[in-house]
């Protein structure tokens, strides 16, 4: 399957997968993960969706790697509604991890749903099994800076300093500017007193 995928023949990969199912009577978890990954990379949305349903109905586990592939495909195609549905399904059917949460957080920030993004970020922050990392911190920081939520951006900056997270260069430039405005405002306030 992988060989056909590498030469840009995802349908041939699917044929191999179907032949395996016919000859063996069923397929294993690794084969399901691989074909879903191949179809997602090829952005074959409907085929990938039908195969993940088939995978879920097979009662094989774990499902998480296939949900990651599906959500990544939806993200790259800007299909936020489908991504959100996949996140909810993943939450019901398996234990979501940091990668699942991060993809969802990226999508929420991209569509400008900062309230929900903040809620998801706070869930990540409070759940030690998921936790936040450099990518998720930069994502929420980008959201706050682009929407003018500068006080919240400064709080995330403080958290990132605490956790020793690297800040993306363009965000640092904007944050430096925002913080310089904040310092000027504080100085002006004290001068008026």
UniProtKB/TrEMBL annotation:
Could you mention a single GO BP entry for this protein?
Answer: Group II intron splicing
Ranges: PPR repeats: 97-131, 133-167
Q: What keywords are assigned to this protein?
A: Repeat
Asked if Iron is a keyword of the record, the answer is: no
Matching entries from PROSITE patterns are given as: PPR
UniProt key word Repeat: yes
Tell me what this protein is called. Pentatricopeptide repeat-containing protein
